[in-house]
Amino acid sequence: MQKYYQKIKKTPIFYDMTDFELEKMLECFKAVIKKYEAGDTIIRRGDIITKIYVILDGEVNIEKDSYWGRRIIIQKLHENNNIALSLVASKNTESNVNAICTKDALILILNYEKCSAMCQNACIHHGAFIRNMFKILSKENIELVEKIENISQKSIRDKLLTYLSNESQKNKSNIFEIQFNRQELADYLNIDRSAMSFELSKLKQEGYLDYKKNKFVLKVEV
Amino acid sequence: MQKYYQKIKKTPIFYDMTDFELEKMLECFKAVIKKYEAGDTIIRRGDIITKIYVILDGEVNIEKDSYWGRRIIIQKLHENNNIALSLVASKNTESNVNAICTKDALILILNYEKCSAMCQNACIHHGAFIRNMFKILSKENIELVEKIENISQKSIRDKLLTYLSNESQKNKSNIFEIQFNRQELADYLNIDRSAMSFELSKLKQEGYLDYKKNKFVLKVEV
DNA sequence: TCCTTTTTGTTGTAAAAACAACAGAAATGT
DNA sequence: ACATTTCTGTTGTTTTTACAACAAAAAGGA
């Protein structure tokens, strides 16, 4: 555990804490680190979530299999992100999504239930911790609304332009790399991959953008 | 303000507080109550949100006008809901949505910025308050994911069945009332209203469901 | 009550997307 | 370097959706 301290210290959920405080918190939370391999399921639909999961390394997709068998990618998570944090607060709420490890991952797991019951008053840093969680959830919330904006556009073209424009803004540059491969992007935007590829080609031809693999250049203001 | 105490006390954001604590908090937050009429814009795209808005009465839509002029309804909010709470935590983040009053509303407005700066340590109930906010955001988060599930279905029929099934589950009954009229539902599910009406008729004819106006009876397990 | 306005349902047509099948390119492993 | 697998792009066909225009029903006001 010790060897990960520096990494853990950098996660937003422990923002603004000293080494000593961090150590106390990890103890209080009965923290463990677990390794997952690409393809592993970290959280399954129906699970009751009572622990806090923090990605220290690797990549995790939050997905949902629709009733009719299609995959829906809700979000793609990386280092420092939390998995299903919103489910911790709503006790006894079943997860209605799956968390799938897509690149070998290192996950810090905190027993929030145990701690929040025991040390609500004792642990002086619990206040900072919950403030951090609030900020994290806020950010996630904004991102979910952004995703809704992306997939709410009426045509494949509009979805692509909205998504790419948002990515461009996030990177503060019209040259940027996207996190999805083509199939994943299609599953994220809820469109057919081949139709999407076709539309991307058209956009390139018409001079709206350029791309090679995951590297994109957006040439228009959207 | 006094005459609203009982109502305010029931909002989740003040959950678990005594009358005395509530009074202190409202003072600390420089609380005011503002009336809005149907059609009013409460929050406009681009606004920097520094206040907490709690709906005491009325109805508010969180909407977005797509670049191409279509309306997207993100969520419909009622009594006790917060408006754009996630934007308060992320300082200096512009709102990318509009909050439109759809039925005459009474909004409690709290100056969070002022308070959180001043009384972080002084106000002993700040802890409970932020815990409540965390819970509210969690719930909102789960609802946003549910909305993503609804609109991510591939056909109009699947969107309707998924949405209605989710509503049915929330009401714990296969007979329930929905909050949207037809045009609003279409804007929420991102589909054409007339095509949606047509699909609803077909579903009724095929015996999947029954409805009259906003009252629905779901006859199948989805 | 009757008239007006708003909401909901119906239909045909044009446009867009999904799907399937395949070709080419890139990545991976040996 | 070569073979194999995965990923991406292309095209034609079928299915679905959006759109427009209108009809019917419901709600609201005088």
Explain what the structure shows.
The structure is a homodimer of 222-residue chains. The first copy, chain A, has 222 residues and is an alpha+beta fold. Helix content of chain A is 40%, strand content 25%. Chain A is built from 8 helices and 9 strands. The first copy, chain A, has helices at residues 5-9, 19-28, 85-89, 112-118, 126-151, 156-170, 182-189, 193-205; strands spanning 32-36, 41-43, 52-65, 71-77, 82-83, 98-110, 175-177, 209-212, 215-218. In chain A, strands 1, 2, 3, 4, 5 and 6 form a 6-stranded antiparallel beta sheet that branches. The first copy, chain A, has a 3-stranded antiparallel beta sheet with strand order 7-9-8. In chain A, a hairpin with a 2-residue loop joins strand 8 (209-212) and strand 9. The radius of gyration of chain A is 19 Å and the shape is elongated. The model of chain A has no long low-confidence stretch (mean pLDDT 90). Chain A binds chain B through residues 64, 66-68, 70, 72, 74, 85-90, 93, 96-97, 127, 130-131, 133-135, 137-142, 144-149, 151-154, 158, 162, 190, 222, and chain B through 64, 66-68, 70, 72, 74, 85-90, 93, 96-97, 127, 130-131, 133-135, 137-142, 144-149, 151-154, 158, 162, 190, 222. The structure holds a DNA duplex (30 and 30 nucleotides).
